[in-house]
Amino acid sequence: MLLKRADKLCGEVTVPGDKSISHRAVMFGSLALGTTRVTHFLQGADCLSTISCFRKMGIEIENNSDEILIHGKGLHGLCAPEGILDAGNSGTTTRLISGILSGQNFDVTLTGDASICKRPMKRIMTPLSMMGADITSINGNGCAPLLIKGTSLTGIHYDSPVASAQVKSSVLLAGLYADGITSVTEPFLSRNHTELMLHAFGANITSDGTTASIVPEPALHALEINVPGDISSAAYFIAAGLIVPNSEILIKNVGINPTRDGILRVALAMGGNITVMNKRTDGGEETADLLVKSSSLHGITIEGGIIPTLIDEIPVIAVMAAAADGTTTIKDAAELKVKESDRIAIVTDNLMKMGCDVTPTDDGMIITGGKSLHGATLDSCLDHRIAMSFAIAALIADGETHMKDAECVDISYPTFYSDLENLISKS
């Protein structure tokens, strides 16, 4: 794809539904009694993989574009699929569904695409095995494909070495089928969509600091869920509005859950002009409209407890840092190495190709901003967040930028390029 510089961006945009919440709505709705109605559902490839997996286990799911209806059969209503479950490119599907499958009365093989089959699954296999789960890596490398044999589970307290919502959620979902209380303590609080939504479905789940605990309940009950806009998708327009001169963008209906709003806190700390408007709460999730205006940004240090609240946004934060005055240092983000790609390596490599002064580190990167960027030929490495981040970088680069495999944005944001073009065309 060919991308060019923009003089300014103006207008409104409504980003797709939150990916994390869309995944969970399908999973929990399938395990609930009754019909769960979900509006503003994300029609991205990852969430469609979750629908596919539950359909294969006997759940009727009507997909009417922006609205889906999930006809749940209860906690024990899933049936053995014919053949292998395929999670596609979705780490959320793979890790969360593993917790659910561990407590079933049937066996299943769970796999995904080439990227998923390289991503670490020991981080869920270890605590699930501690609960009594029979889960093995078929190739013996701690990655998918996984063979999961349903069995009886026992509640545990797990001290997670990483702040990961996928690890926490996998264990808590297994806890729905366990004997006794299951709890997870994290080093920092990761995104808490599982806790909020399970509580709304009627689960006996509590949170205390960085510890979440669940007691098995006999039933979950269907809900109506309106999915807020995904702040991870909004992040690209937040960055674009801040770094492209003479810009003003209104981003409508964005989820601003405090465990996900790190991008806002970082942008404000860098000197960004962002106004949070029309705040409201829907289904336990805070949402708002965001008015973003061009700003003179400066470098900061990003580290510690804020990292889990913005881990998916670090690639576009790096682009913001390239446009900012001074040095931005990102630490404590080694998790970036085991995402859809090694995002530390790819972000720094692509920024270097565009003329940015950037140094990769073991757990992040050091970016000295302020230099003019120039167009380059870049590789998305089939990573949707890399493709979108460098589409934003191209807006402030001299010349033309060519992006390989740009269509990988379909994983989380199928209309990204058209939404971006609409803001440019109104300038």
Based on CA inertia axes, which overall geometry fits?
globular
Structural class: alpha/beta
Low-confidence stretches: none
Beta percentage is: 25-35%
| Largest sheet: spatial strand order | 2-17-19-18
Total helix count? 12
Largest sheet: 4 strands, mixed
Beta strands, count? 27
First-last Cα distance: 21 Å
Give the integer mean of the pLDDT values: 96
Estimate the helix proportion, in percent.
25-40%
Specify Rg, calculated over alpha carbons: 21 Å
Molecular structure report:
- The protein is α/β, with parallel strands linked by helices and 427 residues long.
- It has twelve helices and 27 strands.
- The chain has helices at residues 19-31, 45-56, 91-102, 122-130, 165-175, 193-200, 231-243, 262-269, 314-323, 343-353, 384-394, 416-425, and strands at residues 2-4, 10-14, 33-39, 60-64, 67-73, 85-86, 107-111, 134-137, 146-149, 153-154, 157-159, 178-179, 182-185, 204-208, 211-215, 224-226, 248-255, 273-282, 285-293, 301-302, 327-330, 357-361, 364-368, 373-374, 377-379, 397-398, 400-404.
- Strands 2-17-19-18 form a four-stranded mixed sheet. Strands 4-5-3-16 form a four-stranded mixed sheet, with helices on one face. Strands 6-7-9-8 form a four-stranded mixed sheet.
- The model has no long low-confidence stretch (mean pLDDT 96).
